[in-house]
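Tip: read the tokens left to right.
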């Protein structure tokens, strides 16, 4: 008595036939793809609408129903630049750049100590770092304002540098610790056997290995500092105001200049978009190392 093989074989070649795709699985995959595109378009639509509105005249931007066909113009961008946007952009660049450098310089040794050479009650130390992010900023703005006033540092860009550094340091330490934990212990043992000291190991071995994570951390700090509004609104005036403060200038007693607001917002978004595009390779590698769980 012969037994039938469970494999389905082709009558011509005798080779196993490829299994037929599950019809239900194909339908579910198609629906998932459509849903993904719908969600992506829903999130991207406001950004696209802002970009389109930036090239309209004010009357066209405020029209109801919306004006779909129009002649693009750069008038709103000229108005933004002529309105003194350069000073605000310079202040944002200084505050964001210096605070990000300080955050990375402080976060690297701190995260190294917590990951490679952990101290007792490391989790308590991490909780201390992250607990500062749980405090609402509105609860500390009054004492910060009083202290800044007594030190005569109100409306100075360096006050924002210090605050942005303190604001981003906890998240940077938390992220960088995760990146350092991904390094195999054998690498540190090999560096030690070669006679490398702590600083040389950190500079020549560890930093190159966590460079993608470093880029991801720096970019997140840049985004947080560049978009920060509350401290800049309450602690600056004419000399140290940043880009988010400039954007609010499009809302006047005469009304909301929607096209100019869109142009200012588009210009404000470009530096972060360019930074993300330049560092996209390192950013993807960094985020895949396990920092974002």
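Filled-in amino acids:
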């Amino acid at each position: 008595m012969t037994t039938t093989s469970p494999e389905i074989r082709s009558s011509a070649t005798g080779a196993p036939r490829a299994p037929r795709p599950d019809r239900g699985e194909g339908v579910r995959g198609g629906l998932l793809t459509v849903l993904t595109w719908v969600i992506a378009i829903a999130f991207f639509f406001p950004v696209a609408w802002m970009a389109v509105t930036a090239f309209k005249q004010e009357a066209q931007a405020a029209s109801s129903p919306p004006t779909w066909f129009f002649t693009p113009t750069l008038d709103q961008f000229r108005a933004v630049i002529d309105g003194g946007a350069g000073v605000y952009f310079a202040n944002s660049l200084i505050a964001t750049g210096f605070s990000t450098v300080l955050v990375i310089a402080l976060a690297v040794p701190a995260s190294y100590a917590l990951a490679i050479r952990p101290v007792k009650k490391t989790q308590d130390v991490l909780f201390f770092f992250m607990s500062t992010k749980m405090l609402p900023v509105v609860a500390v703005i009054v004492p910060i304002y009083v202290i800044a006033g007594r030190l005569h540092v109100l409306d100075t860009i360096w006050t924002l540098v210090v605050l942005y550094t303190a604001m981003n340091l906890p998240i940077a330490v938390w992220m960088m610790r995760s990146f350092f934990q991904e390094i195999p212990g054998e690498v540190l043992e090999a560096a030690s056997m070669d006679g490398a000291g702590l600083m040389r190991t950190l500079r020549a071995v560890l930093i190159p290995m966590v460079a993608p994570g470093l880029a991801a951390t720096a970019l997140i700090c840049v985004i947080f500092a560049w978009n920060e509004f509350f401290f800049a609104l309450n602690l600056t005036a004419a000399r140290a105001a940043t880009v988010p403060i400039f954007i609010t200038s499009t809302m006047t007693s005469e009304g909301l200049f929607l096209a100019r607001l869109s142009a200012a917002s588009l210009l404000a978004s470009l530096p972060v978009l360019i930074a993300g595009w330049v560092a996209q390779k390192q950013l993807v590698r960094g985020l895949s190392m396990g920092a974002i769980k």
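The radius of gyration is 27 Å. The chain has a mean pLDDT of 82.
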